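Archive transcription. Copying these from loose printouts into the bound notebook so they stop getting lost. Printout 1 of 2:
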Amino acid sequence: MTGRHLDAPVIGLDLGGTKIAAALVAADGAVLARHALPTPATEGAHAVLDALAEAARAVRAPGTAAIGVAAAGVIDPATGTVTSATDTIHGWAGTALAAGLATRTGLPVACDNDVRAAAATELAGLGDDGTLIYAAVGTGVGGAVAASGRMLHGAAGIAGHLGHLPSPEADGLPCTCGATGHLEAIAAGPAITAHCARLGGQRADRLQTVAERAAHGDPHATSAITLGARAMGRALGGLANALGPHRVVVTGGVPRIGPLYWDALCAAFTAELMPPLRALRPAPPHGGTDAAVLGAAALTRTLPLHHPHPTGAAT
């Protein structure tokens, strides 16, 4: 936690299952440069670390002080390691993320789960007693939970992994974590796409194709999207009853496919709520598309910094 340069620019990296987004962020939060490249998710952890380093180099400027990484998987900020992960990124579990990237770039690195990093930007606006539920629905279903103004990390950094809540709509369906019946197996983008085919619809290679078919009245596409949305809404509504949040945020590529998804999610959410929460509604993030990289950059000022190995050995 030493050696911070609070007036210097830092790099924020958002590592997802399909894309790495990079930004050079000034001390006042302004984004000075951006870059993006595909995540080599099937090529192993070393390839992903190399790609992260490449993305950082693309936005780095003289005086850059540190790198913050918001990464997929269960991340332990204290050790800088990936303690658990699905097979979305092959061989990601057990990766020494902070040490590996620090060695490749020569800069100190702080890291946390990607959704939790983005959620921290929302929590900042809720005050000292804020309680927040934050869900990110894309290639997978991620999440973050904060209570009494503090982001919860939990044992081994696992707090907030909403995609692995049990979901009746996903009964019997295999989840990426190896279990069955989890929310991610019916509500994530690839899961909705696969379910459309199971219902008898024409196979599609991506969710956007399913959304386009639904917009043209395809009943299989419409059913798959609304089922995934309802499952997500029900899970969030039940969690809201347990936590009593001041704000519920839903973000990611899936909610952006249009009102068919969003309206079904909100209706299912509202139907689950206990009377004191009836005015609560899910909302998009305040931070927009920059939330993840801004949250990643902020990690360099709040979490432990892991410095390059003194021998320069690769990790």
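Printout 2 of 2:
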Amino acid sequence: MTTAFETQRAALADVVAIPVTPFTEDGGVDGTTYRALLRRLLDGGITTLTPNGNTGEFYALTPEERQRVTEMTVEEAGGRAAILVGVGHDVPTAVASARQAHALGAQMVMVHQPVHPYVSQGGWVDYHRAIAEAVPELGVVPYIRNAQLPGARLAELADACPNVVGVKYAVPDASRFGAFARDAGLDRFVWVAGLAEPYAPSYFSAGATGFTSGLVNVAPAVSLSMLRALRAGDYPAAMKVWERIRRFEELRAANGSANNVTVVKEALAALGLCRRDVRPPSKPLPENERAEVAAIAAGWSI
């Protein structure tokens, strides 16, 4: 393992923040507000940023917008944070995005789950291998949402591509995660709990050392307090944080996570930090549900 990959591995064993992408009144990407939100995360102690993640509405952005978001993130971070850029879609698009990320100065790419009705296990390996081989200098982090994929397939991928250094595991089953990680190689990868704070305690108990977060956009200190507790092995303290965020995350997860991004942006809007606008197929919260989100956000020490 190279020193560069060790640095990347360390960056994944942390709160892996997924910034929102704010929009202007006319529907474009609001670069000024995005930069301000990034500075707020950095000043709040966040050191790993994932532009073009799902909380950033990756699939609702154009290729040009995704590149701009990456550029702004690298510029604002200025070396204060590791940058893990979300890439995906068809192989040529994902490869082009990964190469852009490298050229812009990112250290890693997160490969979104292939969006295709028919994903074979061997095809999953081929998809990720094509991307990883195109950017051997970058750390590569598969985003796994497929409960049918066995750990042996990840090991096969890493055998061919040593720059596959971490995994964002987002199957909502801690037992399955524990088995998958051990079948792939528990110590071979950095395991990131890809379903954020609600699953972080159970996934840490099975071997994860980092977790993704959308909530961190609203309250960086809350996410970092959970990380400190988990690093210390203090699960009662971690569950105290879990209790504080439970309702917020339940609202995000309701109806098949229909309002996953919407709730985060609503909280930011209540704090006066960005507009609540999201792009289809997401939709802003109805008026009668906004007050609850605002009350939750106001109750945190922000």
